[in-house]
Specification:
Layout lengths: L5 E7 L2 E6 L6 E4 L14 E3 L1
Antiparallel strand pairs: 1-2, 3-4
């Protein structure tokens, strides 16, 4: 991926929010299941 690519979409209060890549790299691991609730600040994926 490159800077600005959409990494994931998070739903908050029925609004879908696109989260862009902060830097170039490769997603090595996704740490949460699709649709699972997450806490603020929780790691969602590992990027190298």
């Amino acid at each position: 991926m490159k800077v600005g690519d959409t990494l994931l979409i998070i739903e908050a209060m029925k609004t879908m929010n696109q989260i862009p890549a902060p830097h170039a790299g490769v997603v090595k691991r996704i740490l949460v299941d699709d649709g699972a609730p997450v806490e603020y600040g929780a790691p969602l994926m590992i990027i190298e």
